[in-house]
Specification:
6-stranded mixed β-sheet; 11 helices; about 400 residues; globular; alpha+beta; 7-stranded mixed β-sheet; single chain; 22 strands
Length: about 400
């Protein structure tokens, strides 16, 4: 009997979306997740118009928007003391002309609940992958450790959707191209007060080194630092850190007293990389497992979901029919390589621009060049809105 099933490792946005789409198309799907729940702070929480359009096409948008979230029809930056619109979504050809900021655990719980309605979808929590099962050069399943012991899950296709520290891609021996990043981000929570800036997401400081996202009753704030410098920042003391952030934040300086200790600060080590080849016979990687993104623009989650949609469009038929072949896996990479490379190229250009400006003392205090351009020609905010909101190749449910 031909195996027509799929095993997806990682119940993040890419894994759950792919699992839902394949199960909806009649494929038997098992999604395995090493954690017991989705409750983790400071994960990518930006749901772009491209993702909202996918949810609309699935008939799931209305339920999604009933969950706690805030909406950003525009993105803002503080430049020269002025509030500048750097991305405007009002002209997008989509149902939703805004970014939704939603805790990722809410999004994942919702997608998982909808997927569980399908009879051929199964989600296993607290299942840690320990090995890939290989037969005659082809991946034929995974070995997991669960609270009930060791379990083998065999499948016609194993999909690694387990993030930038993917166990699947490591055990598959897939080669990674690393492009590096000169930055890390220190995340913290600050309370939201009635007189705070009115925008939902903004960038502040002379070099846009501070990011703030409206979470309703608090701000999720990110302070950008030089790569690998967190130990030096901590060595200078919490008071010096509070002062440094207060100097670039549009919030009142006393708000930083809410950061009581280093336990309230969370390091995000930024990196950009991608696999040279996303697949092996019987195995495919998508999302961050195939291409880690910088948090700039919040593209990672949405690029991962676009990967999932393209993967389901290309592979659902061959999986259902029992005709899956290497060429189908190569087709997924061919379809998603351009938007991945283009977005990473854009992020690397933005990083190089910032590094060049910091090396030039005469221009040290100016904002990045793309922001100066948008400030000079506001019509560019609509073009930026299309790029941020839809990406380079938006996918649609087939």
């Amino acid at each position: 009997m031909v195996d027509r099933s799929c095993c997806i490792v990682g119940a993040g946005p890419a894994g759950l979306m792919l699992g839902h789409l394949l199960a909806r198309a009649g494929v038997d799907v098992t999604v395995v997740e090493k954690h017991g729940d989705f409750l983790r702070d400071f994960r990518g929480d930006t749901v772009h118009p491209s993702t909202l359009e996918v949810m609309h096409e699935l008939g799931l948008l209305q339920g999604l928007l009933q969950l706690p979230h805030t909406q950003a029809p525009k993105l803002h930056a503080e430049i020269g003391g002025k509030d500048i619109t750097i991305a405007d979504f009002s002209r997008l050809p989509t149902k939703c002309k805004f970014i939704a900021f939603m805790p990722q655990w809410e999004f994942l719980d919702y997608v998982a609940a909808e997927a569980r309605r399908l009879p051929n979808f199964r989600l296993l929590m607290r299942a840690q992958v320990t090995a890939l099962i290989e037969e005659e050069g082809c991946i034929a399943g995974i070995r997991t450790t669960t609270p009930d012991g060791e379990t083998d899950i065999r499948a016609a296709l194993v999909v690694g959707a387990d993030g930038r520290n993917s166990v699947v891609r490591e055990k598959a021996g897939l080669e990674i191209e690393r492009f590096g990043s000169p930055r890390d981000v220190l995340w913290m929570k600050l309370s939201h007060q009635p007189d705070d800036p009115p925008y939902v997401m903004g960038h502040g400081g002379p070099r846009q080194g501070f990011v703030m996202v409206d979470r309703g009753d608090y701000w999720q704030c990110g302070y950008v630092v030089r790569k690998g410098s967190y130990a030096d920042v901590k060595a200078a003391g919490i008071d010096a850190f509070r002062a440094a952030v207060a100097a670039v934040s549009p919030l009142p300086p006393e708000r930083m007293q809410e950061v009581r200790s280093w336990d309230d600060v969370h390091l995000l080590s930024v990196r950009i990389d991608r696999l040279k080849r996303w697949w092996r016979p019987g195995l495919l990687c998508i999302g961050d497992a195939a291409h880690a993104m910088s948090p700039i623009g919040g593209f990672g989650v949405n690029l991962a979901i676009q990967d999932a949609v393209a993967t389901a469009n290309i592979l659902a038929g061959p999986l259902r029919d029992g005709t899956l072949a290497d060429r189908h896996l190569a087709d997924v990479q061919a379809r998603r390589s351009f938007p991945t490379k283009a977005m990473q190229k854009l992020q690397l250009m933005m990083q190089r621009d910032r590094s060049k400006r910091e090396a030039d003392n005469k221009r040290r205090e100016g904002p990045p060049s793309f922001m100066r351009g948008i400030a000079r020609w506001p019509v560019l905010a609509h073009l930026a809105g299309r790029l941020v909101g839809l990406g380079f190749r938006p996918e649609h449910i087939r």
